[in-house]
């Protein structure tokens, strides 16, 4: 299984606020699209709700405990089924939110981390233990015209 997480967070672990993301990062969205296109993206039901529609060109996999929840163009799963889907593909991505990162990071071999270089408040946090990973790539991204904050793009590989 080749499963990787894609995460944007501040150093204090903020990943979201009021159901959305507390920054505007066009550079990051473009990278997200480039990385994930053609592969399954695995997300929590709340993250799906915040996006509001399946993302095109990718198998959209949504974790929910609800037997009734369904959406056109979405595969509804539990953890076991999400892992089976990841197993059946050359690559799959865990794309949040906090509950799903917590649940699935132990199965991830890599983390694509957009490190938000600003002290931003939020109501959803995810802090991860980098000691289990080694840094493979680190690149600075000053805030472009359509970015509200500067970032670093770091790729961490499980040791
Ligand atoms: N910065 C980033 O990179 C990033 C990425 C993604 C999301 N976000 C932000 O994160 C926030 C949402 O995160 P969140 O932690 O509140 O929610 P979430 O992880 O997106 O979704 C939580 C939901 O997932 C389902 N779930 C959780 N554990 C499960 C399990 N073991 N089995 C089956 N289903 C399970 C439940 O759905 P049901 O309630 O339907 O049962 C639960 O309510 C938003 O603000 C979003 O914008 C940020």
Concise overview:
It contains 4 helices and 10 strands, in the order ββαβαββαβαββββ. The protein has 159 residues and is α/β, with parallel strands linked by helices.
The average pLDDT score comes to: 97
CATH class designation: Alpha Beta
- Any idea what the shape is? globular
CATH topology: Dihydrofolate Reductase, subunit A
Helical fraction equals: 10-25%
Low-confidence stretches: none
Structural domains: how many: 1
Total strand count, please?
Answer: 10
DSSP summary: helix tally:
4
Order of helices and strands: EEHEHEEHEHEEEE
Query: Which structural class fits the helix and strand makeup?
Result: alpha/beta
CATH homology superfamily name: Dihydrofolate Reductase, subunit A
* Distinct bound molecules: NADP nicotinamide-adenine-dinucleotide phosphate
GO biological process, one term: tetrahydrofolate biosynthetic process
Pfam families: DHFR_1
Family: Belongs to the dihydrofolate reductase family.
Function: Key enzyme in folate metabolism. Catalyzes an essential reaction for de novo glycine and purine synthesis, and for DNA precursor synthesis.
């Amino acid at each position: 299984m080749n499963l990787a997480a894609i995460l944007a967070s501040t150093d204090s672990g903020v990943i979201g606020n009021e159901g959305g993301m507390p920054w505007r990062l066009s550079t990051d969205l473009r990278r997200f699209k480039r990385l994930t296109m053609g592969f399954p993206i695995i997300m929590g039901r709340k993250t799906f709700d915040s996006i509001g529609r399946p993302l095109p060109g990718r198998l959209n996999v949504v974790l929910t405990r609800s037997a009734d929840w369904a959406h056109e163009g979405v595969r509804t799963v539990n953890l076991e089924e999400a892992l089976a889907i990841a197993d059946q593909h050359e690559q799959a991505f865990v794309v949040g939110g906090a509950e799903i990162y917590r649940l699935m990071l132990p199965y991830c071999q890599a983390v694509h981390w957009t490190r938000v270089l600003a002290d931003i408040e939020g109501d959803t946090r995810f802090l991860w233990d980098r000691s289990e990973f080694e840094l493979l790539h680190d690149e600075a991204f000053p805030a472009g015209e359509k970015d509200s904050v500067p970032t670093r793009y770091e790729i961490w590989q499980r040791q």
